[in-house]
Design a protein that fits this description.
The complex is a heteropentamer of chains A (about 300), B (about 300), C (about 325), D (about 325) and E (about 475). Chain A has helices at about 20-30, 30-55, 55-60, 85-125, 125-140, 145-155, 160-170, 170-185, 190-195, 200-235, 250-255, 265-290. Residues about 1-15 of chain A have low confidence and may be disordered. Chain A has a single domain (about 35-60, about 75-290), classed as MetI-like fold, CATH 1.10.3720.10. Chain A has about 300 residues and is mainly alpha-helical. Chain B has 2 domains: about 1-75, no CATH class; about 95-305, MetI-like fold (Orthogonal Bundle). Chain B contains 13 helices and no strands. Chain B has helices at about 1-30, 35-40, 45-55, 60-75, 85-120, 125-140, 145-160, 170-200, 205-210, 215-250, 260-265, 270-300, 300-305. Chain B is globular and about 85 Å long. Chain D is α/β, with parallel strands linked by helices and about 325 residues long. In chain D, about 30% of the residues lie in helices and about 25% in strands. An 8-stranded mixed beta sheet of chain D has the order 6-7-8-3-9-10-12-11, with helices on both faces. In chain D, strands 2-1-4-5 form a 4-stranded antiparallel beta sheet. In chain E, β6 and β7 (about 120-125) form a beta hairpin. Chain E has helices at about 35-40, 90-100, 135, 150-155, 205-215, 230-235, 260-270, 275-280, 310-320, 335-350, 360-370, 385-395, 410-420, 425-440, and strands at about 15-20, 45-50, 55, 60-65, 70-75, 110-120, 120-125, 165-170, 175-180, 195-200, 220, 235-250, 285-290, 325-330, 355-360, 375-380, 445-460, 465, 470. The N and C termini of chain E lie close together (about 10 Å). In chain E, α7 runs antiparallel to α9 (about 310-320), α8 runs antiparallel to α10 and α13 (about 410-420) packs antiparallel against α14. The chains are: A mainly alpha (about 300), B mainly alpha (about 300), C alpha/beta (about 325), D alpha/beta (about 325), E alpha+beta (about 475). Chains A and B meet through α5, α6, α10, α11 and α12 of A and α1, α6, α7, α10 and α11 of B. The site of one magnesium ion has 3 residues of chain D, from α1. Chain B: One of its GO terms (biological process) is transmembrane transport. Chain B: One of its GO terms (cellular component) is plasma membrane. Chain B: Belongs to the binding-protein-dependent transport system permease family. Chain B: It holds the Pfam family BPD_transp_1.
Chain lengths: ~300, ~300, ~325, ~325, ~475
């Protein structure tokens, strides 16, 4: 056979090329996703290099009454809050908390919900019914209300907050994973794997899960965004993270009384939330397209 | 169809039983003793003990749960621990307000997002599309209490167009409903857009065009109805988000709804009231989703035939 | 000579995608006469559907664009018409049937309404009258008129395809383009549908373009055949000329690839390789790398049209110098 | 025909699916034998149960009733371990060469997987050699080793599927419409390849298709299915020259033939295949059959021998 | 009532913003300040406080004290309830008995042993022991007089009937309470001024101020301190400010190490920067608290402490904590969260690492009653007699109650008893003076500040009166 007819995509690979690379290539074409990625990258840098940017104890935690409520300026880029703490420093350190809370709570939901969803989807039948009907109970209570109830019960702390947001997102993840697994499960390559003698767990781990990742990743990205929002909302009703931890949501909620005269106190943490959530949403949307097999 | 609706309604029972148990369980984890809270400061040990007995607080959780369920079946949701008022009466007074708010919000966001989604899809990658999406996304990225405060400052303090809060007439409904709507606009818009994009690639759209149907009618008559099916699901789910968002919005806008009541009750450890609120929330959320499922059947005849 | 209904000249269509430019149709000429059927045959991706959609000016834009070409339908130059006029022509003067009846009908509209819609638009009838006419059309394709208030999912595949045909024929078009109308159907149903189409075509005296990759179908319904390969028509002629006097090596390859039902021992002689990548067509004959007869110049020069009869031509370097050349495959 | 050993015996095989509307009789009591090294063509209209039959034989689905005896062993009674052992011999090739390949694995990984999984060759190098060998065998260029299926055309993808099916000690393959998604020119390539492999490796095939000209070209025996029932089975020449069942006749006459010669009169059937859910106890073809009589609507015809090795289920015969 | 300026249209309705809904219309069914505001308008007590926190008669006509433990009180004749029935001693006795039984307010009359009807308009209270501040207990909303017949009718205060200057119109849960002027009010000098008073629930502070600015409400009794300037700068609005008797304090659980060490407690008294707290938490609207009661109280004496981190460090070192220690501050509510933050920051300066634990109010109170806390922040207002605050907070018998520091000190117990049983004012003053010094030496609390009551109102609104408890005499509000 002549190989001249190979499409140019088929140029022999010397190295193994990953699908991730393809996804990345497609993702790169989406301006908004790139904008989102850049923003998130900046926030990640802030989180990682926070100690280089600002001093935690002195800038973010220490009270400084003389310098309280200073408008943004050269000394304090984003101004200072009612205790004279540097808002910029607090936002920088808040990045750690907010992203951490978002990611961990989603991880909790993903692990628990994902496992349940995968089991339900793969085995179907009675097991599916039992799992999904049980989750319907969780699903019947709107997410944030469930989170409020749980935090109220467990007490407000970073850990409990993550647990609450995590648990309340379990049914969502279970549904998405289940749907993804279902859509993969009936494809013939799963049957083909069974035909060559693969066992169930091999099939789930090697074939089903990798192929159902796309919608799950997208959902997870979007949920990190909403977890950050949920944290802020919980702060508003006094169930947020304990002070003086510089968390965006509690900065926003705590500073809201100053919205009239010292707008910047809530403006910057608000912007931080908006930008993070926005960029996660942009990435999520971008990924949705990039991972869509139909656009391959 | 009727059978299906009845079956779905029957399904609500086990779910509600589960919901109540779940909440019962969660609340039981809360530290703090209800009796001391009810009696407040300076109550004697004895009185506390008596009250605990009276309320059955010393019974095992499952017994308390059972008793609650028995009362509930008889239509008795108990009395608020903190005010002594009947929970059912309180909820009857407050729930319609939340309902009014969320329904208006849903209508608002549907009214905004479906057209934007459709136009965005038909002009994919145009300026309108991009701006529409970015605006919707920013909407979803703003904490609603923040949006609410900003809207109050802008529209009621600075411009004086709307009252800053309370519940007096249509005007006072607009700001809170809009605040709530903003958050769900994004997802509805996006779903509409992507399902619209999906639909306009379908063969039957080409068929319609090949029949000579004008562009406008292709969109309105052929594409929209099909594109609405996934959008409708999202609207159902968004209703849950709205109910949750109502908790914050009701506080900011002094809206006497059930969301605020629930949070206040949680803080007072007013178990019967919390349970009442959660039941109503869960029930209305489930019923809305049931209605949505039935709506499907009207939009999509394929589903209807499955039900009968 | 009969009246020409459709005349396409030098049509060139491409799709500009992120991966590159797909040269889907590369300068083709076709003409179809009243009452006759042209079969458009070719492999997947040859550009058949694109050609058909160009005639209706329904190439999705973006990514598609018509680079050049003249299309004359019933004396009207379509490329110049404004969109509003074009809407009048679609479904009225020319209609199209799509490959997959499962997806060609709008799932949420009643079939009766879907048929009536076209009638209403083109014949300016009231809703009632249009529905009346729709019922007649439905009965004409062999479906009881009482079922017009049902939805597509309540119909079987073959019935859906009939509904699609009813829609296409509802305004008595001069030209009917059928894009693989039976590929998705079972053999027995395919036979029903083909029979019906033949009958109706005769009754209405339409011209028809039948797009297919099944030479059996071609043999059954077509008068003329155009063989498409990589966006060009490589051979065209009357049914007889193509079947009995095959000239292009690709056409021959097609015949040799189909199992012969009457001779089960006959060996299949497939065309080797694959169709050229439409992103990157070779400078010469697109078929040359699969061709057993390929010569040096095949790779570098585009072949010219060689005519054997007023209707029969072929684009191949084998012929200009040696019109008597015979393909070895035994066909023709 | 008793000279060859019988590899596969299917006895009274039934497969019913539970659906919300009732029991769906996908495969309803079919019986046949298949000899080693031969090909059985399974034809019939969409939804008549061809694929289900194939899957049940490979125990990808559990049979509702009936026996499948492969090489003397009843497949549906094997322990999971023995079943895995048996899977080295029996394989399947699917219709859709896209969905039957894991989009996240490269060509070589896909072909390697069964070898690795069944621990046939433990040495990595040797295993790799084997993969290359298989790729050569099915005519896949070695350079494609590291590409992903979605980068390839249907023909090549189908070759990957074939290579995977051959990777083990394959003796028997169910080909579930392996060419119907392909273009004619590619279809011929694959058909030739399958034939060649059969000769080389002494394979036994069940060849499922709805394309009668392909099945005629490819099979030794042909079984025609209608709504879960086997209605006619004979040697290929016999069936084509002497079809007995009215449905088979109609099917044969309906094939569009690419010749200009005069063709026989077409039998155009009315209506379509009816629902397989809770079918009544009658000849399932009766409502479309031009010759149907009362008896056809009252009872089910059994499969009877009408000539040497020619079986038909029809009251009229 | 003031003379009304003759402008064209005078608003005859006053809207009062509440930060939370009332919990009950039953004066014996609540103990929160919001509900009290409404109760005070609907019902009367035997006595009331004036704006200077002096006890003045309300329903009482006259009273005498036949013995140390007996109080005979005669009520005004002809007082009519809103339903027109006349109030008698029976109603008073009924109400007092009811109050003693009502869970929410039973502690108010806990010193009262019995109540007897002497005649149609006279009742006699007998206290358990000599009880100096007795009259003060009778100003509490929990001792409001309710019509016996009405309560026995079983309406459960859905449409409450009282005797006050306003009558009940409606209560929309979570939204508003509407009251209408009682034209037949018995006390012609204290008649209601506006024809309606509406209490509107606006939970969010900023929204409350905005509602005042937009004119949706006429008076905000609890103006967020942050918005004081907004009101001051607005010529249409007026700001009223008056020192309260409420002390916000930081209490240490003396049962728990290291707070069982008096040096540590004193160190904290030096370490906490009260000025900073006042600036940050209440925007300067208050004064430093130097002792456990507000300066206006009988026998008040300031403690010896001032902000001095160096001294604090010294004391800590002396106590054996030169490098500080870790501790937890427990509290509830957004306002106190800020206080906690400042304390946390102050303590950081002297090497103490404090973490803050925010709890729901219910949970918080419960934990505190159980003594789970190490330290806590709370504020306390009570009626003007020192005993009403001191005994609950410092009497050893109240450990597990409101003795937040869990102080068990026989000397203190003795002084408390002495103070409450001494009926002579001068002697009481001396006792309390000593008690103040004693408590501050033991330093179980760090008194933080005495907050001013801040009321924002429409500049045109007249009759805005403040008492140390905040907006007072609401019946006087009018345009
Ligand atoms: N919307 C599109 N965007 C990009 N490329 C397209 C698009 N539509 C068609 N193409 C490409 O144009 C070429 C011709 O496509 P066309 O659909 O006309 O082929 P066809 O002959 O109808 O094939 P088939 O037999 O599969 O229907 C193909 O290479 C196809 O991939
Ligand atoms: N998992 C399943 N659950 C329920 N019904 C099924 C399932 N698989 C197949 N069926 C039904 O069983 C019948 C036979 O299906 P099968 O796939 O065997 O048909 P087929 O002859 O292979 O058709 P095709 O030519 O379309 O592939 C069909 O009616 C199908 O809808
Ligand atoms: Mg096509
Ligand atoms: Mg099949
Ligand atoms: Ni090659």
């Amino acid at each position: 056979m002549s190989d001249r007819t190979l499409s140019r995509k088929m140029i022999p690979a010397t190295k193994k090329r990953s699908q991730a690379l393809d996804v990345w290539k497609r993702l790169r074409k989406s301006n908004s996703a790139i904008a989102g990625l850049i923003l998130i990258f900046i926030f990640l840098c802030l989180a990682v290099f926070a100690p280089l940017i600002a001093d935690y104890e002195n800038d973010a935690l220490k009270m400084n009454i003389i310098e309280r409520l200073q408008s943004p300026g050269a000394d304090h880029w984003f101004g200072t809050d009612e205790m004279g703490r540097d808002i910029f420093a607090r936002i920088v350190y808040g990045t750690r908390i907010s992203l951490f809370v978002g990611v961990i709570s989603v991880s909790i939901a993903l692990t628990l919900g994902g496992t349940l969803g995968a089991i339900a989807g793969y085995y179907g039948g009675k097991i599916d019914n039992i799992i999904m009907r049980t989750l319907d109970i969780l699903l019947a209570i709107p997410t944030i209300l469930l989170a409020i109830t749980i935090v109220a019960a467990l007490g407000a702390s970073i850990l409990n907050l993550m647990i609450a947001v995590g648990i309340s997102n379990i049914p969502g993840f279970a549904r998405v994973v289940r749907a993804a697994v279902l859509s993969v499960k009936d494809q013939e390559f799963i049957e083909a794997a069974r035909a060559i003698g693969s066992r169930d767990h091999t099939i789930i781990l090697k074939h089903v899960l990798p192929n159902s990742m796309a919608p799950i990743i997208v959902f997870a990205t979007l949920k990190v965004a909403s977890a950050i929002m949920a944290t802020a909302s919980l702060s508003f009703i006094g169930l947020g993270i304990q002070p003086p931890t510089p968390e965006w949501g509690s900065m926003l909620a705590g500073g809201r009384a100053y919205i009239r005269d010292n707008m910047y106190i809530v403006l910057y943490p608000g912007l931080a939330i908006v930008l993070t959530v926005l960029s996660l949403n942009l990435i999520g949307d971008g990924l949705r397209d990039a991972l869509d097999p139909k656009l391959k | 169809m009727i059978k299906y609706v009845i079956r779905r309604l029957m399904m609500l029972f086990p779910v509600m039983i589960g919901v109540i148990f779940l909440v019962f369980f969660i609340i039981s984890l809360t530290p703090g003793d209800v009796a001391t809270i009810i009696l407040g400061d300076g109550a004697t040990e004895e009185r506390i003990k008596d009250l605990r007995e009276e309320l059955g607080l010393d019974d095992p959780l499952i017994v308390q749960y059972g008793n609650y369920m028995i009362d509930l079946v008889q239509g008795d949701m108990g009395k608020s621990y903190s005010t002594g008022l009947s929970v059912a009466g309180e909820i009857k007074q407050r729930f319609p307000n939340t309902f009014k708010l969320t329904i208006t919000a849903i209508f608002l966001s549907v009214l905004i997002s479906i057209p934007i989604g459709v136009i965005s899809a038909t002009r994919q990658y145009s300026i309108f599309d991009n701006i529409g999406m970015i605006v919707a996304l920013i909407g979803i990225s703003m904490p609603s209490f923040w949006t609410g405060l900003i809207l109050i400052i802008l529209f009621s303090l600075k411009l004086g167009w709307f009252p800053s809060g309370g519940m007096k007439g249509i005007m006072s409904l607009i700001l809170p409903a809009f605040t709530l709507a903003i958050a769900s606009t994004a997802s509805i818009t996006r779903t509409t857009r992507s399902s619209m994009l999906e639909v306009i690639r379908q063969d039957y759209i080409t068929t319609a065009k090949a029949k000579g149907v004008s562009r406008r009618s292709v969109i309105n008559k052929h594409a929209l109805k099909n594109a609405l099916i996934p959008a409708v699901t999202v609207i159902g789910l968004e209703f849950g988000v709205l109910l949750g968002g109502a908790v914050l919005t009701e506080t900011v806008f002094s809206w006497p709804g059930i969301g605020r009541l629930m949070v206040e009750s949680i803080q007072r450890k007013d178990t019967p009231m919390v349970l009442g609120c959660v039941i109503v929330f869960a029930l209305s959320f489930s019923i809305v989703n049931l209605i949505i499922d039935i709506l499907y059947a009207f939009i999509d005849p394929r589903i209807k035939s499955n039900y009968s | 000579m009969k009246e020409t209904v459709l005349k396409v000249e030098n049509l060139e269509v491409r799709y500009v995608t992120e991966d590159g430019i797909v040269q889907a149709v590369n300068g083709i000429d076709i003409s179809v006469e009243k009452g006759s059927t042209l079969g458009l045959v070719g492999e997947t991706g040859a550009g058949k559907t694109t050609t058909a959609l160009s005639v209706l000016r329904l190439i999705p834009d973006p990514p598609g664009e018509v680079v050049s070409g003249k299309i004359e339908l019933d004396g009207k130059a379509l490329m110049e018409l404004p969109e509003s006029k074009m809407e009048k022509i679609r479904g009225g003067l020319v209609s199209m049937i799509f490959q997959d009846p499962m997806t060609a009908l709008n799932p949420v509209l009643k079939v009766g309404d879907q048929i009536a819609e076209a009638i209403k638009i083109h014949q300016q009838l009231s809703q009632d009258k249009a529905l009346q006419k729709a019922r007649e059309m439905l009965e004409m394709v062999g479906i009881p008129g009482g079922r017009m208030n049902e939805y597509p999912h309540q119909f079987s595949g073959g019935m859906k395809q009939r509904v699609v045909i009813a829609i296409a024929l509802s305004c008595s078009p001069k030209l009917l383009i059928a894009d693989e109308p039976t590929t998705a159907l079972d053999v027995t149903i395919q036979a029903q549908v083909l029979e019906l189409m033949k009958e109706l075509k005769e009754k209405m005296d339409m011209a028809m373009i039948m797009i297919t990759h099944d030479l059996g179908v071609v043999a059954e319904v077509c008068d003329n055949v155009a063989i498409m390969y990589a966006g060009r028509i490589v051979e065209q002629g009357t049914l007889e000329e193509i079947f009995n006097n095959t000239k292009h090596p690709y056409t021959e390859g097609l015949f040799l690839s189909i199992p012969n039902i009457d001779d089960r021992k006959a060996e299949l002689k497939p065309i080797r390789g694959l169709m050229s990548d439409p992103f990157n067509l070779p400078p010469g004959c697109s078929f040359c790398d699969r061709c057993d007869y390929a010569m040096d110049k095949c790779a570098s020069e585009k072949p010219e049209k060689v005519r054997f009869s007023p209707d029969h031509f072929v684009e191949c370097h084998l012929y200009p110098d040696n019109k008597e050349f015979q393909l070895k495959g035994g066909k023709g | 025909m008793k000279d060859k050993e019988v590899l596969l015996q299917v006895r009274n095989l039934k497969k019913y699916f539970d659906t919300p509307k009732g029991k769906l009789h996908a495969v309803d009591d079919i019986t046949f034998d298949l000899q080693k090294g031969k090909t059985l063509g399974l034809v019939g209209e969409s939804g008549c149960g061809k694929s289900t039959t194939g899957r049940v034989i490979l125990r990808l689905l559990e049979a509702t009733e009936g026996d499948i005896i492969y090489n003397g062993k009843n497949i549906h009674e094997l322990s999971p371990k023995d079943m895995r052992e048996l899977r080295k011999e029996i394989q399947i090739i699917f219709q859709d060469p896209f969905s039957s390949l894991d989009p996240r694995m490269t060509v070589s990984e896909i072909i390697e997987e069964p070898i690795k999984l069944n621990k046939l060759i433990r040495d990595r190098k040797k295993r790799f050699e084997r993969v290359l060998e298989l790729m050569d065998l099915v005519g896949l260029s070695r350079r494609l080793m590291n590409t992903y299926p979605h980068e390839l055309d249907g023909g090549r993808r189908q070759r990957i599927g074939i290579a995977r099916a051959l990777a083990l000690d394959t003796k028997f393959i169910v080909c579930d419409e392996p060419v119907s998604a392909l273009d004619v020119s590619i279809q011929a390539q694959i058909l030739n390849l399958l034939k060649e492999l059969q000769k080389k490796l002494d394979l036994t095939y069940i060849f499922i298709t709805h394309d009668l000209s392909v099945v005629n070209h490819f099979s030794d025996d042909i079984a025609v299915m209608y709504l879960g029932k086997l209605i006619e089975k004979a040697r290929a020449e016999e069936l084509f020259s002497n079809p007995v069942h009215p449905y088979t006749k109609a099917l044969l006459s309906a094939i569009p033939r690419p010749t200009l010669e005069k063709k026989g009169e077409k039998i155009i059937l009315k209506g379509e295949i009816s629902s397989p859910i809770n079918p009544e106890d009658n000849c399932r073809f009766a409502n479309r059959c031009p010759f149907a009589e009362d008896v056809c609507r009252k009872s089910e015809p059994p499969l009877r021998e009408s000539g040497e090795n020619h079986f038909v289920a029809c009251h009229l015969f | 009532g003031g003379a009304q300026e003759e402008t064209e249209m005078v608003k005859d309705e006053v809207v009062v913003a509440l930060s939370a809904d009332i919990t009950s219309l039953d004066p014996q069914g609540h103990n929160d300040t919001k509900s009290e505001m409404v109760s005070f308008l609907l019902f009367n007590r035997l006595f009331r406080l004036n704006t200077d926190f002096e006890v003045v008669p309300d329903l009482a006509e006259s009273w005498e004290q036949p013995s140390d433990t007996e109080w005979v009180i005669k009520i005004k004749e002809g007082v009519k309830f809103h339903d027109g029935s006349e109030m008698t001693a029976e109603d008073v006795k009924f109400s007092m008995d009811r109050s003693k039984e009502a869970p929410k307010v039973q502690q108010v009359l806990s010193e009262v042993a019995s109540i007897e009807v002497v005649d149609k308009y006279t009742v006699k209270f007998t206290t358990n022991s000599a009880f100096a501040p007795f009259l003060y207990t009778l100003v509490h909303a929990g001792t409001s007089v309710v019509p016996k017949a009405y309560v026995e009718s079983g309406d459960e205060f859905a449409k409450p009937i009282g005797s006050g200057p306003y009558t009940f119109v409606e209560w929309i849960s979570g939204d508003q309470v509407v009251l209408k002027k009682n034209e037949a009010y018995f006390d012609k000098n204290n008649m209601g001024q506006s024809s309606t008073i509406t209490f509107k629930v606006i939970p969010e502070g900023t929204s409350r101020t905005i509602a005042l600015e937009t004119g949706e409400v006429d008076v905000v009794p609890e103006l967020p301190t942050i918005d004081m300037n907004v009101v001051k700068d607005n010529s249409d609005l007026a700001l009223y400010e008056k020192p309260s008797t409420r002390v916000d304090f930081f209490a240490m659980n003396t049962e728990k190490a290291p707070f069982d060490n008096v040096k540590v407690r004193q160190a904290l008294n030096y370490a906490i920067d009260k000025d900073a707290i006042i600036t940050v938490a209440i925007d300067g609207a208050g004064v430093k608290a130097e002792s456990v009661l507000a300066p206006s109280f009988l026998g008040y004496k300031a403690g010896p402490y001032s902000y001095n981190p160096a001294k604090a460090k010294e004391l800590l070192a002396a106590a054996g904590y030169p490098d500080g220690f870790e501790m937890e501050i427990m509290t509830s509510g957004d306002d106190r969260k800020k206080i906690a933050e400042v304390i946390q920051a102050s303590l950081m300066e002297v090497g103490i690492k404090a973490s803050i634990k925010m709890l729901e109010w219910g949970t918080f109170i419960d934990s505190v009653l159980r003594g789970d806390e190490e330290t806590l922040i709370l504020g306390w207002t009570s009626n003007p007699d020192p005993d009403a605050t001191l005994t609950p907070h410092w009497f050893s018998g109240n450990i597990g109650g409101m003795n937040f520091a869990r102080v068990n000190d026989p000397e203190m117990d003795r002084m408390l008893k002495e103070g409450r049983e001494e009926l002579d004012l001068g002697k009481r003053e001396v006792i309390y003076n000593k008690l103040h010094t004693y408590i501050m030496d033991k330093a179980p609390w760090v008194p933080l500040f005495v907050k001013n009551n801040i009321v924002g109102a429409n500049a045109a609104l007249k009759g805005v009166e403040l008492s140390p408890q905040g907006l007072w005499n609401l019946e006087k509000l009018h345009y």
